[in-house]
Amino acid sequence: MFNFEFHNPTKIVFGTDTIAKLDQLVPANARVLILLGGESARKNGTLAEVRVALGAREVQEFNGIEPNPSYETLMQAVELIRREKLDYLLAVGGGSVIDGTKFVAAAVPFVGEPWDILTTHGQVVTAALPFGSVLTLPATGSEMNNGSVITRKASHSKLAFMSTHVFPQFSILDPTKTLTLPTRQIANGVVDAYVHIVEQYLTYPANGMVQDRFAEGLLLSLIELGPKVLATPNDYDLRANLMWIATQALNGLIGAGVPQDWSTHMIGHELTALYDIDHARTLAIVLPANLHVRRTSKHAKLLQYAERVWGIRDGSDEQRIDAAIAKTAEFFEAMGIKTKLADYELDQSAVDAVVAQLEKHGMTAIGEHGDLTPEVARQILTAAR
Ligand code: NZQ
Ligand code: ZN
User: Among 145, 177, 209, where does a domain finish?
Assistant: First the structure.
């Protein structure tokens, strides 16, 4: 196992009727900005509950953070906060709203051009406004991590930053607030969480016994509950489990002390930036092809994955690996998510375009060994056609 430091300061408040606890979680004298996506939190009553819980505090709203939040939109929130001297942020929504809030929190005190936060992947961040979140979509893990992914529309750039300054102080996870999610977003959440686990697990053996078993437990839970949550969309316990699994999938615990890949995400981000495909759907396209192309360097872990997650014990090594990759793609398809570029009406020109974008963004040596070059990315995307 590698040396590591693990510190996660985010307080989780989990369960039904927990939004009322905002009154204890947000400082009484805070000047609050609630950050929101489109209409969902207003329509399903979540926003009204939040406003009641915040009581007499001074509260303003910033609406319209879009899926794959944009720098262009978020800079308007930065201006509003500076102008109105607001000092506490509350994200109410999915990963996009929380990611956007992280960027805003870091951008407000930042001296200089805030886009540098993204181009340096967070290295220039030295302070951020405090914030909390009310999560309405289980998927990204943003509610309990210090990562954020922001898109600059003008240049089709979708870049990530991380900083210890942008952990949420708290996140409220009320599974009943996810009951209004459309099927498409539930499926996206299951697949995004699944791929987060795979990025931290399916690399090469590092003797992280508990990390492996924990990751396998989370994967098995998603395989078990994914189809059920689609079939019985009003089941509280399924929603509660999905919510807690998605948080655990990317709160740093399973990735501590073990190698991490993240190449499926880096390639997927380019597909979203160029073609506006939902984040999870880009992962479903890239992951099976990525595992196929990099099967030699992932050999040992692919066999472990085949046996422990899919129960595949028969056949040669290569047959078991093929079967595990096929099962992975079948699971995504069973969640209603297509796994080939052609399913999204993309052809060879998309392969060329994504490879060019990876080069432009300096993503030329990615993956757990830093050996995923643009040429390997081309092989992966070609295999994903
Ligand atoms: O905008 P509204 O009207 O709120 O609707 C949203 C949006 O259209 C809707 N929604 C959210 N909660 C709802 C709801 N609809 C009905 N009922 C509810 N309770 O769902 C749609 C999608 O929301 P979004 O926040 O975009 O989805 P998600 O949570 O999947 O976030 C995706 C973003 O997170 C980034 C992705 O790249 C993408 O930009 N990621 C962030 C990560 C992180 N911070 O660690 C890691 C991930 O790998 C990922 O890259
Ligand atoms: Zn993701």
Answer: 177
- Say how many Å lie between the CA of residue 264 and the centre of ligand 1: 18
For a substitution probing ligand 1, which of 34, 149, 150 has the most ligand atoms within 8 Å of its CB? 149
Place of tokens 């759907």: 281
CA–centroid distance for 355 within its chain: 22
CA dihedral of 158, 160, 161, 162, whole degrees rounded to 10? 160
How many other CB atoms sit within 10 Å of the CB of residue 44?
17
Position 306 scores a pLDDT of 99
Q: Is residue 3 part of a domain?
A: no
User: Which of these three, 133, 158, 177, is where a domain ends?
Assistant: 177
| Distances in whole angstroms, Cα of residue 377 to Cα of each of 206, 283, 325, 353 | 25, 14, 18, 11
Dig out the tokens for 74 from the structure.
């978020």
Give the model confidence (pLDDT) of 310-330 as tens digits. Answer: 999 999 999 999 999 999 999
Is the interface score ipTM higher than 0.90?
A: yes
Instruction: Say if residue 173 is in the same domain as residue 202.
Output: no
**pLDDT per residue as tens digits for the range 232-250:** 999 999 999 999 999 999 9
Q: Are residues 214 and 362 in the same domain?
A: yes
Question: What's the CA-to-centroid distance between 259 and ligand 2, angstroms?
Answer: 17
Instruction: Please choose from 40, 157, 263 the residue to mutate so as to test ligand 1's pocket, defined by most ligand atoms within 8 A of CB.
Output: 40
Rounded CA-CA distance 206/258 in Å is: 6
- Range of 374's domain? 183-383
